[in-house]
Input
Amino acid sequence: MIQDTTAAHLSHRIDVAQSEARLPSLAAGLVRGGRLVWSHARGTIDGRVTGHEADEHTQYRIGSITKTLVAVVVMRLRDEGALDLTDPFEQHVPGTAIGHVTVAQLLSHGAGLQAETDGPWWERTAGEYWRTLVDQLGLRHPPGRRFHYSNVGYAALGELIARHRGHPWATAVSAELLNPLEMQRTTARPVAPHAHGLAVHPFADVVLAEPEHDAGAMAPAGQLWSTVRDLARWAAFLAGDTGGLLDPDTLAEMRSPLVVDDTPGSPWTAAHGLGVQVWNIEGRRFVGHGGSMPGFLASVRVDVETGDGVVLFTNSTSGLPRSLGTDLLSELTQAEPLPPEPWHVAEGDAEVLDLVGPWYWGPAGFELRAAGDGRLHLRPVDGAGRASRFDACGPDRWVGLDGYFAGEPLHVIRRRDRSVSHLDLASFRFTRTPYDPDADVPGGVDEAGWR
Output
């Protein structure tokens, strides 16, 4: 848990936000080390002074956060070999007008599908069956051309899950994720105690009840309800504590930005991965998702570097302060910064030690370091340029993990006496001195030398 003074400050922040934003109730929680370390709620489930007080066990509708759970089930299917991300949708759900878009494009909102249904506002009207929705599916943009958020795309993914699992998407989410993670208060329909969805009048302190319904085929886009405590467990999942339900490499794949959310006139700060939103805020990378349904707003965000996470709920159609979640995380970091990992002696491989130190690509200086995790870290001396990490994949063979050299081979070229001559990195020659005349430099080195 966090210190009492920190908790009091954070709780006061929620109290002020609930009052100033005129929210019927506001509930929040912070996650650190995979645990809910602080939570606080202000207001009542119906907005009335005498109503039931909200707390960490109160259910709220989480809206599009539902998509993150749907996406994880799809990725589990991929890991099982049931599908490939490059598969056309037609291969798994035949008979639609969008059969040529890929699974990855649907997950990342890069398919170009229409954002909403053709019929009435689906978030406020009773849902339809897939066989009715399928006739409405259409494209607004060429697949792969741009980011275009699509609720309809996740209806399609829900149907894909049902075809493979032999039962509805919600059953798959419960059996494969919610039950193993003990998220028992996350359900498809509200279970008391739950907040009531409300709209707050913009010019008077009165509220209007918003409808609640089963969204039918559109439900995978935003049906689920959850609590601070349950969604905190999901934040820990997105931070890396998957409970063995998803391979860490698959989670990393989901959290990698694929499609940039390009808003004209604004810097690129938001993107979408495979089912999760990605934000770059003042140099800090966050992943998670927002949620919006009539009467409710919700958010889950995780700081990728620290693993700290935040969850927020309110039972109001609008008004949740946009930066509140990241502000709470920043205040936690400032008040109680995480200690760095302790330094310790690592096992040294003599041939790896031959590789560390200064290297040159032509005249440009680099340094290669051996990390305690067994990887090599290459970075420019001046800090700007092509930095990458490498994993060993055989004797004197390495493969790039990120940056410009992700997936590219690094070969260590040794002389007959086993001393290192040079490094061959994706055809670039790295030598111990700038343009070493004794190394195999493509194009050769001018015999006149430096002058």
In short: Residues 350-430 form a domain with the Lipocalin fold (CATH 2.40.128). The chain has a mean pLDDT of 95. The chain is about 25% helix and 25% strand.
